[in-house]
Write a structure and sequence with these properties.
Radius of gyration: 21 Å
Strand content: 35-45%
Largest sheet: 6 strands, antiparallel, barrel
CATH class of the largest domain: Alpha Beta
Number of helices: 5
Strand order of the largest sheet: 6-7-8-11-10-9
CATH architecture of the largest domain: 2-Layer Sandwich
Number of strands: 11
Order of helices and strands: EEHEHEHEHEEEEEEH
CATH topology of the largest domain: Transcription Regulator spoIIAA
CATH superfamily of the largest domain: STAS domain
Shape: elongated
Length: 236
């Protein structure tokens, strides 16, 4: 199978051609590389696919699950009838959106992001934020990033935090926060994603800094953070 990647409006479009079968591991590898590069919205164009079997469907499903696990989205474009029939038998057509035109698919990604941002705003309003000023360890999950840094944790909620003293990361980078909370005899290791960077000219008083959003945080850990925040807010 040939894969020609291109980007449009921040979305990776994979133009697929040829056979999708047992020798299509390169599809999984390509999708994985897109995710590592910070592209979580992926559109697969099947217009030039002339053959697919169940092994090929399995490869597509594995890649799809990897995208979903990274909080991304995968959609399909120009799926021929013979491919669509196999997707229907495998049940893949019930979990992945299929579009006939590229513009419609790209607009769907945009609409998804708008809805997601609204949901995030509603979620953040449910979680109180606690001002802090403690040192934590910041570990990078990027191959090219710093291994470990000492930074200041200035703000904490049940869904994210604000970190001060680091300008080594970019939007979408994955990090791990190692936090020892005051009065808590426990170390928290929290996976997070960089979702906001301070502006040196506008927010010079909190620069360099970045906002992170916790990823795949267990509900039990989130409950502990919320209890800590509520207890300290009441004391304040």
């Amino acid at each position: 199978m040939e894969i020609l990647p291109r980007t449009k409006r921040g979305i990776v479009i994979l133009d697929l051609a040829g056979r999708i079968d047992a020798d299509s591991a390169n599809f999984i590898e390509t999708v994985g590389q897109c995710l590592r590069d910070g592209y979580c919205d992926i559109l697969c164009n099947f217009e030039a696919v002339d053959f697919i079997d169940y092994m090929g469907v399995s490869a597509i499903f594995i890649a799809y699950k990897e995208v979903v696990n990274c909080k991304g989205r995968m959609k399909f474009l120009n799926v021929p009838v013979h491919v669509r029939e196999l997707f229907a038998v495998a049940g893949l057509d019930r979990v992945v959106e299929i579009y006939a035109k590229e513009e419609l698919a790209l607009n769907a990604f945009k609409e998804d992001r708008v809805i997601e941002n609204i949901q995030k705003m509603q979620l953040r309003r449910r979680f109180k934020r606690l001002p802090l000023d403690i040192k934590i360890e910041l570990l990078s999950k990027q191959d090219s990033g710093p291994i470990c840094l000492k930074v200041d944790l200035l703000d904490l909620s049940g869904v994210g935090a604000y970190l001060f003293g680091c300008d080594k990361f970019k939007l979408g980078d994955r990090v791990v926060l190692k936090i020892d909370l005051p009065s808590e005899r426990k170390t928290f290791l929290l996976n997070a994603k960089v979702v906001w960077l301070s502006d040196k000219d506008i927010q010079h008083h909190i620069h360099p800094g970045m906002g992170v959003e916790f990823c795949n945080i267990p509900s039990s850990v989130q409950d502990e953070l919320v209890k800590f925040i509520e207890k300290n807010l009441s004391l304040a």
